[in-house]
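Example 3.2
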Amino acid sequence: MTQIDHEEQTAGYQVAYSKLAASETVEVDPVGYVTNPQQYVGEHVVDFSRRHSGNARNLIQLAQQKSPGTVGSFMQSLAGAGYGI
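Structure, written as tokens:
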């Protein structure tokens, strides 16, 4: 009865292990299936442009008016990668 139990002495609260294992969640990457973002966007922009040719051009022109530098460089990078709109 008078002996010290060393396991009991070190079994106190430990900050590093205070989380419950069940409380940890795995973060899901909603676009994890996209391996090449430029290819993915390029293909979808071209597809949208084919299906909605007039609307796509109008949207691009409107976007260029609002943010000419960003949209212009974006369209140039797509054209440089071979995606024609």
